[in-house]
Amino acid sequence: MQAGAGSGAWHNTSCCIACCRVTAVNEDSIDLELKDATKQSLPFGTCIWAAGVGMHPLVAGLKEKLPAELQTSRRGLLVDEHLRVVGSQGTIYCLGDAAVTGATPQTALPPTAQVARQEGEYLAALFSKNKLALVEPSSDGSEEEEAADADLVPLPKRAKPFRYFHLGSLAYLGSHRGVMDLPFKTPFLKTLRGYLGAQTWRFLETYMQDRTAVMEPEAPPAPTLPAEGPTAARKTRVVVLGSGWGAVSFIKNLDPAAFGEGGGYELVLVSPRNYMLFTPLLPSAVGGVVSENSIVESIRTLMQGKGTYYEARASDIDPEKRVLTCKKEFCEVCAARKSQGGSLASHDHSEEEHTFQLSYDILLCSVGAVNATFGIKGVQDHCFFLKSMEDAQQLRRHISKALEHAALPDVTPENRRKLLSFVVVGGGPTGVEVAAELYDLVKEDVARKFPSIAEDVGITLIDGMDSLLNSYHTEIQSYAGETFRHNGIHLRLGTRVTEVREGEVLVEHKDGGRDSVPFGTCVWATGIAMHPLVALLKERLPADVQTSRRGLLVDQHLRVRGSQGTIYCLGDAAVTGDSPATALPPTAQVARQEGQYLAALLSKQRLALVEPAAAGEAATGAQAAGEGGELVPLPRATKPFGYMHLGSLAYLGDSKGAMDLPIKTPFLKTLRGYLGAQAWRTLETLLQVSPRTRWLVAHDWVRASVFGRNLSDI
Question: Which domain of life is it from (predicted)?
Answer without folding.
Answer: Eukaryota
